[in-house]
């Protein structure tokens, strides 16, 4: 009797120590989890800040490109009218006088216009909407004049940023070629636009203390840049990282790159301007983005630290109270043990694959062993096994991502469920992208017909797969049967079906092979 009492109290003391140990472990796990969640939150916040700034820069570049496009279109529309009038009515003094008056009116209506000009085929000034033509003025050496003289292209030409010879202000040019009635070169009509006007579009735009807005040509030359510096005008940045992203079919995008000019790493948004060979780039200093993130992370760290202290204190108090209530905890522990055992039993009953809703591998192993044993015992008709593998599934996952890969496996599982509906048959997810079907009382022919239905049904569902030769998701199938093979184990049946599947895949995929 004494021995039984000693044993009883010893067991109680052991239970108490285990219980306290569990609580300590629980508190430790919660603390580690809190640290992990806080760490994840910090890095997730970083991604959020960068993505949010990329979106902001993308929207900003879109807005600016629309404004710049409208500015250039207004100037070019006037040039089209000037060109048509000169080509139809000529460039005599009377016509030029009337045209000058009209252009002065247009210039007053368009604040971005520095001036409208007309030059003859020698580069001499014929018209200046500002009213003053410098003596012996000649622009035949300008880039736009040389371009139109040597090219018959009737479209607009955007020249590099230059200083005006009449006012010494920074301007950009939009010009068109003027032809004689026989199509030969007659001169150039040009609109000059203040670079300051583009800078005024950027006023009020928050790009931080070290951000920038860049307007560059498609060849990489800077037209105007904010913050504005004379020495930046005309610099070619085509070898910078942003131009590596500007493929011919890319109209816009976002990225985090280093500046070609000052080496500062920035979050950028870029967009081509419709109808003109220009690109607008809006950028925000990444360090400034991280400054906000760091302050938020510090606040999160402080809060997490306070929670850890509170949690540790609560854990300590809980352990103390548990030591004082050992009798009640012993009963609770017994109940918990029963609950854990019940959960284990429920776990053994969980035989369905959560993704495809087919039987899982454990269910398959139980079923095929039972089916082979049943056939041996009752000498029933054949049992067939169909092994299925999704073709090139790794490439599909790499191309479309794991989430889409799961959707693909769900679709394959749904098609298999649709066709495997006899009582006594089993369709299972064998593992990864492999599936297995066990068909009772079925020979090779019946298994082959069912396999082909599944294969063709999947092919006709046309799930896109750009890396597949057919451009859609396909499957390869191998079939074995107990009725035709000299095997009497489940392992042998699976092994032979696997070999048939291997032959199907090595023979070109998207086919069904029967073991021989």
List keywords for this structure.
Beta-Lactamase; disordered N terminus; single chain; 6-stranded antiparallel sheet; 2 domains; 5-stranded antiparallel sheet; Alpha-Beta Plaits; alpha+beta; 16 strands; 516 residues
Any overview of this molecule?
This protein is α+β, with helices and mostly antiparallel strands and 516 residues long. It has two domains: 16-344, 2-Layer Sandwich (Beta-Lactamase), CATH 3.30.450.20; 361-514, Reverse transcriptase/Diguanylate cyclase domain (Alpha-Beta Plaits), CATH 3.30.70.270. 52% of the residues lie in helices and 19% in strands. The chain is built from twelve helices and 16 strands. The strands form three sheets. Strands 1, 2, 3, 4, 5 and 6 form a six-stranded antiparallel sheet that branches. Strand 5 (170-179) and strand 6 (185-194) form a beta hairpin. Helix 1 (2-89) packs antiparallel against helix 2 (93-109). It holds the Pfam family dCache_1.
- Structural class of the helices, strands and pairings? alpha+beta
Number of strands: 16
Uncertain ranges: 1-10
The CATH class of the largest domain is Alpha Beta
Helix fraction by DSSP (H/I, runs of at least 4): 40-55%
Give the name of the CATH superfamily of the largest domain.
Answer: PAS domain
What value does the Rg take, in angstroms?
A: 39 Å
Query: Describe the biggest sheet?
Result: 6 strands, antiparallel
Task: State the CATH architecture of the largest domain.
Answer: 2-Layer Sandwich
The average pLDDT is 84
In whole angstroms, how far apart are the ends?
73 Å
| Helix count from the secondary structure assignment | 12
Instruction: Label the overall shape.
Output: elongated
Beta-strand level of the residues, as a percent range?
15-25%
Stated plainly, the CATH topology of the largest domain is called Beta-Lactamase
Overall number of structural domains: 2
H/E series: HHEEHEEEEHEEHEEEHHHEHHEEHEHE
């Amino acid at each position: 009797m004494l021995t039984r009492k000693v044993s009883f109290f010893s067991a109680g003391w052991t239970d108490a120590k285990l219980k306290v140990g569990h609580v300590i472990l629980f508190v430790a796990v919660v603390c580690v989890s809190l640290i992990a969640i806080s760490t994840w939150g910090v890095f997730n916040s970083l991604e959020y800040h960068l993505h949010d700034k990329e979106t902001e820069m993308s929207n900003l570049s879109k807005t600016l490109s629309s404004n710049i496009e409208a500015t250039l279109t207004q100037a070019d529309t006037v040039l089209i009218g000037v060109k048509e009038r000169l080509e139809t009515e000529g460039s005599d003094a009377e016509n030029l006088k009337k045209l000058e008056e009209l252009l002065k009116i247009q210039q007053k209506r368009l604040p971005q216009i520095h001036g409208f000009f007309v030059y003859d085929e020698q580069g001499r000034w014929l018209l200046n909407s500002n009213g003053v033509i410098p003596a012996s003025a000649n622009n035949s050496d300008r880039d736009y004049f040389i371009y139109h003289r040597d090219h018959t292209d009737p479209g607009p030409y955007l020249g590099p940023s230059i200083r005006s010879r009449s006012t010494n202000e920074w301007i950009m040019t939009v010009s068109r070629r003027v032809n004689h009635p026989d199509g030969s070169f007659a001169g150039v009509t040009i609109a000059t636009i203040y670079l300051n006007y583009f800078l005024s579009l950027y006023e009020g735009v928050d790009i931080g203390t070290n951000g920038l807005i860049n307007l560059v040509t498609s060849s990489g030359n800077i037209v105007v840049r904010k913050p504005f510096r004379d020495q930046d005008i005309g610099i070619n940045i085509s070898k910078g990282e942003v131009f590596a992203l500007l493929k011919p079919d890319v109209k816009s995008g976002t990225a985090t790159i280093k500046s070609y000019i000052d080496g500062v790493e920035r979050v950028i948004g870029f967009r081509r301007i419709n109808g003109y060979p220009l690109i607008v780039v809006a950028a925000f200093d990444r360090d400034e983005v991280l400054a906000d993130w760091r302050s938020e992370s510090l606040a999160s760290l402080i809060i997490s630290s306070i929670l850890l202290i509170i949690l540790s204190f609560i854990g300590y108090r809980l352990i103390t109270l548990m030591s004082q209530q050992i009798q009640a905890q012993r009963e609770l522990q017994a109940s918990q043990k029963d609950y854990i055992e019940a959960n284990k039993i429920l776990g053994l009953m969980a035989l369905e694959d959560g993704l495809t809703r087919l039987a899982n591998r454990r269910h398959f192993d139980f079923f095929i062993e039972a089916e082979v044993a049943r056939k041996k015992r009752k000498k029933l008709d054949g049992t067939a096994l169909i092994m299925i593998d999704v073709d090139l599934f790794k490439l599909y996952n790499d191309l479309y991502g794991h989430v889409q890969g799961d959707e693909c496996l769900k679709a394959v599982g749904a098609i298999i469920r649709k066709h495997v509906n006899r009582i006594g048959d089993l369709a299972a997810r064998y593992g990864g992208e492999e599936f297995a079907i066990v068909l009772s009382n079925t020979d090779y022919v019946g298994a082959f017909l069912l396999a082909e239905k599944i294969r063709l049904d999947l092919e006709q569902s046309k799930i896109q797969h750009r890396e597949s030769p057919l451009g859609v998701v396909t499957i390869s199938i191998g079939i074995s049967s107990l009725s035709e093979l000299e095997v009497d184990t489940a392992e042998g049946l699976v092994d032979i079906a696997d070999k048939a599947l291997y032959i199907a895949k090595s023979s070109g995929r998207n086919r069904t092979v029967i073991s021989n």
